[in-house]
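Workshop exercise sheet. Pairs work together: one partner reads the sequence aloud, the other fills in the structure field after running the prediction. Swap roles for the next sheet.
Pair: D.N. / O.F.
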Amino acid sequence: MLVGENGIISQAKQAKENNKEAEAREKLEVVLLNAQIEKKTNIEYNEMEFLDSIITNQINGAKVRGDVAIVDGYAYELDRSIPKVGKYLLKEEKLIFPKVSVSTPDIASDNRSATFTITAQEKTNGINRIEIWRTGEKIKEYEYNNIKEEIEETYTVKRNGIYTVKVYAELSESIKTTVEGITAEVEFSPNGNRQYQNEHSVKIVAIETNEKIKNIKYKWTTNVQEPKEEEFIESCINKSTITGKGITGKYYLWILIETETGKKNICGSEAFYFDNTAPKIEVSSTPNSEKSFTLTATAIDEHSGIAQYEFYVDNKLVDTQTTTEETASYTWTGEGMSEKECFVVVTDNLKNESRVTKVARTKLYTWEKWDVKMSKQYREVLGEVTGPHDGEYDFYEQFADGYTINQATGTFELNSTTVMYPDNDKPGYRISKDKKMVSQYSLNEIVRNKSIINEK
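Structure field:
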């Protein structure tokens, strides 16, 4: 019995280790499934801050270092965008993370800004990027070419809040710093609103000091980074109420103040959430029988969310479903074979709506399997019959009493008794069960054995 390094004992240890690693992954997978739900339902969710706290709060002893989640000492790549578990890396002690520190923020003498210094190094692989994030938005990025020496960057901010510094090498590491004590030059009321609305109104008050205000301009942007001075166009007066409307997404209100002495300063609000975009929808129709079809609507609204589906048949409202689900269906039943003009209206929670039209049909014909024998050769063609003796031919079928079947393409062998038709007959055939005599391109008497199912 082998009990050495490559023997039974070693295999048992490896199996035990594999089980522990699998258990750690399972813990992380469960938490990230919950995080996926949180991302869809919590408007305040952001992948940088919330995900870290969800993992560390729900798994005892878990850590998040950059884009690596560590559970029970096992390290896994972390895909923040979904979020989901990536590949297993190594045990934590075998990984090489960048070293990063951030100085205590230094508040300026006028209390209008704060400055902190970032120090980072990764001697083995070198650093290629440093990012600064605030409230789930990247506000600054520095790029390098795998620098192994110590890097130092100084950054100035104008707003209070929690800032995350993220350093990238072969692996990444992150650290947070809190800025408090900045006095805003402009007061926003309200200062941000995470509830989706068609429009937001914000009162702005510029705080005057010894510098008298000459001009105030404003701008809405989706970027957390402040705009350039030349980008400001719209003007207002102090203590104005500014209304943003007709836009969709997360927007920031920026104010440019110019004093009588020519001094300029730009201040920004927290995020406001707008939704003026209708849901994206697709509609399909499925025939169920000769008297019934089902309409299915699939809708996506990435902002305020789906609220209601309305199904119309022949311009009449036939069904209303109030639901947040991304799919809804309606089954129509009539008295016979039908083709109907239908449309579906999907509305989101802010009354933005989309409409899609669809022609829906029941099954038109369904025949059971039956045999037809040719009584004679028939050769009235729409053109010359061309092609090899065996293979693809255009043929023209006609009943003995004159009922016509449309031209189609079939495969058959000459000098044989079998005609092999394609699996999907073209629509438009008119066949009646009591029509037993059929004529066909052929040089021989043939036997047809086929199930006819003709649907549009």
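Discussion prompt: The first strand starts at residue 63 and ends at 65. What would you look at next?
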